[in-house]
Amino acid sequence: MAEAHQAVGFQFTVRPDGVDFKLSQEVITNICQAGLTVWKKRAIQFKSLVKMFSGRRPLLYSFQASLPRLPVPRVEDTIRRYLESVRPLLDDEEYKQMEFLANDFKDSEAAQLQRYLKVKSWWATNYVSDWWEEYIYLRGRGPIMVNSNFYIMDLLYVTPTHRQAARAGNVVHAMLQYRRKLERGEHAPLRALGTVPMCSTQMERMFNTTRIPGIETDSVQHLSDRKHVVVYHKGRFFQVWLYMGGRHLLPSELETQFSRILNDTSEPQPGELKLAALTAGNRVPWAQARMKYFSQGVNKASLDAVESAAFFLALDDEPQGYDATSNSLDHYAKSLLHGKCYDRWFDKSFTLISYPNGKMGINAEHSWADAPIVGHMWEYIIATDCFHLGYTEEGHCKGDVNKCLPQPSRLQWHIAKECQNVIETSYLSAKKIADDVDFLAYLFNAFGKGLIKKCRTSPDAFIQLALQLAQFRDQGEFCLTYESSMTRMFRDGRTETVRSCTSEAVAFVRAMEDRQATNKQRLALFQKAADKHQNMYRLAMTGSGIDRHLFCLYIVSKYLGVDSPFLKQVLSEPWKLSTSQTPQQQLNLMDINKFPNYVGAGGGFGPVADDGYGVSYIIVGENLITFHISSKFSSPDTDSWRFGQHINKAMMDIQTLFQASNNNKTAGESVMQLNNGKKRM
């Protein structure tokens, strides 16, 4: 979702000094390490295969071993597609220069770099994913709040109960059920289009996982089954055990524990209130503070409790959610994205956020997995909460209240004044980022997937072309556009980029703005651009994308000390428009036709470029699309509300093309019927 922000202009250093021979040893060592991690994953896959062949239905990891490896594209193909993708964005002189750099790269260092990638693709299960995690996410030294983390919203129209503790109790219990099925591999295998198996390895680190800050690079710590969750409320940290007598706490028992925390009137300890701001600011000060102030005593014990927790739960004290009479979705989005900058633990795999009016949401760290993985879990949680667990007429969790539960325990902190100063500095830098986020989340309900499919075009292509039209109307020019696509049909696959601003899309947009063009001409150009987009999306999904290949070639070049002006130029290009679709994956969990109000609002991410837009959208059912648009107030060139208006108009204008076409067809059919009638007479 938000990887485009991290993928631009990242810095990469190789420690070993010396001649190319040493650097070659370094890259070979790195490739070998990537391969060794493969064997650590095969025990789970083997267990799943044993269970599958024992006669049980397919389990989560049943098809892992049969998934193909991500292929390394031919350099010639990647360069050709790259040049094609930038042609509409460059004038003749700029394109000629880029063409020269690309061909020079192809004829010189490309073959050497490609050989290393080929070796890695034979040895490791995926030649991209470990480097992607390391260099796009973990080596970033800037704040991950807003810049990397993303969010997912609750149900749009329905709130199952307005009791905060009860809703949190049901949701946490549903999460424990999901985690137990995950650990046993009992979830159904993930499939694309309902048939093609997809990789499930990202799901392994969903729980009990924390990003650990380091001076030069962070790491991802994943632990075995953890039996507690850490809860934050009004500046205090509490530890809540999730098991009792060898079983999960029941929803009613969890409600009791969360009620106790909500009713606790104790004050935060010195430095405790904004402690989590350390995870919101720059990574190096956080890493230094962690080593200096949290490596022993009560601080270490309390930090261990946070970092080893199943996940982090924030009990907020300000209601959020959708209100048709206000811009409430904007505030809801910003609350989920950054909150107060100190009331989410941004390093946890995810922070579950509970509001006093019963609404929920998630803020997720990005390095360990991509948004569809978290979305899969959230769909299960919402369905379990609403249709299986339920609530009493008074809005409480069902079941008896156990009064013998041990009280939630306060985590203890002895935070030195010097550490409090570091916390405050991190908070102020994070708050500056948060205050600069210009967000618009709105519902487009003039039409949805139902009407678009009647137009015989892909809903995603329809929206992407609307975004190109909106972008041109907003900025008066075209820009490099990032659309996230998945590569999980391959082992350990993550994402690939679809470069949505194509020559065909540009031709369509120009025709829309040309008063001399007819609707018939515009529609023909739209269809051509939509077909092009769908083909590019297929290429990205099937391992023939552009950007991950170029990224890995660049990584190898840095290891080998090879200076490539072409790769340097490619990796520094700004993505002024970054887009992502939030997919609906488990349509069987909730029957939207039977329960039309039980629809999610999707999720979003922060602004990608200082002078650009981030756009996430979810196609909900047949008649609703929700857009999440972010930019920066500090940019004089962008305005999220204005861009939302342009998107709305672009969607309606494209729909008009099809209406006009259908009207012409209807009129033509009527004339034909009349003529046929005359002949019969």
TrEMBL record:
Coiled coil: none
Organism: Hippocampus comes
Catalytic activity entry: (R)-carnitine + hexadecanoyl-CoA = O-hexadecanoyl-(R)-carnitine + CoA
Domain Carnitine O-palmitoyltransferase N-terminal positions: 1-47
Enzyme nomenclature, EC number: 2.3.1.21
Molecular function (Gene Ontology), one example: carnitine O-palmitoyltransferase activity
GO cellular component, one term: mitochondrial outer membrane
Upper classification of the organism: Eukaryota, Metazoa, Chordata, Craniata, Vertebrata
Primary localization class, coarse: mitochondrion
Name the record gives this protein: Carnitine O-palmitoyltransferase 1, muscle isoform
GO BP of this protein: carnitine metabolic process; energy homeostasis; fatty acid beta-oxidation; long-chain fatty acid transport; response to (R)-carnitine; response to bacterium
Membrane-topology descriptor: Multi-pass membrane protein
SUPFAM superfamilies per record: CoA-dependent acyltransferases
UniProt keyword Transferase present: yes
PROSITE patterns: ACYLTRANSF_C_1, ACYLTRANSF_C_2
InterPro entries (alphabetical): Carn_acyl_trans, CAT-like_dom_sf, Cho/carn_acyl_trans, Cho/carn_acyl_trans_2, CPT_N
Key words of the record: Acyltransferase, Fatty acid metabolism, Lipid metabolism, Membrane, Mitochondrion, Mitochondrion outer membrane, Transferase, Transmembrane, Transmembrane helix, Transport
